[in-house]
């Protein structure tokens, strides 16, 4: 499963399951472990933000020119 497919499954579950969405917003790692048996490394911080019609999120990805960032660091899913 690709990262994009996994993200879509997480979003769809959050849309259909208010309890999961609440846990995902409060404790994303625990919610993903419980619902998808997905464990992220301890040193990875996961921030979940719910967009609304009046609240948008802009994600700035790592700079591809930053030679310190490796492919393995970009692929945490």
UniProtKB/TrEMBL annotation:
Residue stretches spanning the membrane: none
Entry keywords, A to Z: Metal-binding
Entry keyword DNA damage: no
Annotated ranges, domain Nitrile hydratase alpha/Thiocyanate hydrolase gamma: 8-60
NCBIfam families found in the cross-reference section: leader_NHLP (TIGR03793)
Name of the protein described by the UniProt record: NHLP leader peptide family RiPP
Organism: Paenibacillus terricola
């Amino acid at each position: 499963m690709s990262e994009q497919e996994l993200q879509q499954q997480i979003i769809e579950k959050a849309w259909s399951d208010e309890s999961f969405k609440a846990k995902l917003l409060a404790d994303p790692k625990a919610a993903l472990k419980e619902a998808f048996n997905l464990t992220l490394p301890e040193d990875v911080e996961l921030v979940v933000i719910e967009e609304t019609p009046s609240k948008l999120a802009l994600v700035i990805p790592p700079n591809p020119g930053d030679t310190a960032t490796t492919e393995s660091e970009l692929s945490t899913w």
